[in-house]
Structure formats: C-alpha cells, structure tokens
Amino acid sequence: MNRKQMRHILDVIADMFPDAHCELHHSNPFELTIAVLLSAQCTDETVNKVTATLFQKYKRPEDYIAVPLEELEQDIRRIGLYRNKAKHIQKLCQVLLDQYGGEVPQEHGKLTELPGVGRKTANVVVSNAFGVPAIAVDTHVERVSKRLGAAKPDDTVLEVEKQLMKLVPQEEWTQTHHRLIFFGRYHCKAQNPQCDVCPLLDVCKEGKRRMKDGKNRKTS
What are the residue boundaries of the HhH-GPD domain, all occurrences included (predicted)? Predict the structure, then answer.
C-alpha cells in the first residue's frame, strides 16, 4: 500500500467517524494510565463501569498502596485478569511515588518501564494525556490494518505500528488511532463485519472474499 491509497482510507473513515475519541473515562494522566492497564483483554465499556467507582475511592498513587492487595482485587474483580492487574497497579503506584513524585512521566521510554505498562499503553497515554502523536495498535487497529492491506497478515503488532507510521502523516497519528478503533469496533467487527455496506469494500481483499463466499453459499 502507498500513501495515496492510505489517504483514501483515512478520508473515508474520517467521514464515517469524525468524532472518534478515547472511550476510556478519565480526568488526568494517572487515571488514564490505570484505565488502559485495566483494559487489556477487556472492553472499554466494562472498564468504565469499574472505574466509575474505583476513581472515587482511589484518587492518587498513595491510595492504591494504602489498601491490602485483596481489597484492590475485589474492587476490580469484574475485570479480566484482575489479580495480575491489581499487583501491577500497586507496583506501578509505588514506582510513581519512589521515582516520579507520584506523577505519571511524559516520556515514552519511562512509561514502558512501569509495571504493567507495555508499548500500546504508553502510546495511548502519551497521545491522549500529553498530546504526543502516537498510534497505539490494539486488536481493532491490528485487524483493520491487515484487512485493508495497510499491513501484512502475519505482521507483528510492532510491525503494524511501524507501517502505519510510514503511511499516515505524523500529525494525524493520534486521530487515526481513534478512528481505526471506531471503525473496527462499530463497523469492521471481528466476527460480523458490515462488508455489504462498507464504503471501503473496493480496497478490502478480506471483504471481497467474504462477500464472494456469502454469495456462493446462497447460490449453492
């Protein structure tokens, strides 16, 4: 894929989801970091239900480490992998207090050194909390990128990110991340993508194959 083809995809998705944004509820960088950490293998909707009460109880890093681990586990038990995530949260909060005065660092490299924070989480935090252009590749971004041909089917998550960074203007990285997520979450779904009404069907090999298979099943 070249940049001209990517431009077409970006413009179409922008028309479909002009108001795409981070759907994780938060009011500061610290809350966003906790929310993204909780969102691994879990829907944003579930995370928002949990953090609605969690963020009222825990305001600062000190609050998370002032309670027994078991209490924090119970507070987030509706989240998948809640035991591991509770441990990561308490370790992360301790590091923030020990090394950063209780504040979330703005540097990508320092973020990825925090317990439970990987490259995707760091990208979400720097772009949404600190305004640094970044493309975080979650399951939706990866799926859509591969279906539309912006990345190869066997590309790793990092390779998908690098490919998108080449194809998308840097000032559009963060907005593109949100729009690709919305496109994948609400239109190009994993199980039942809306290929029959997709304005990008002409450039989507996956969609054409699905439509062809569907017609073949109907006529056989």
Answer: 38-186
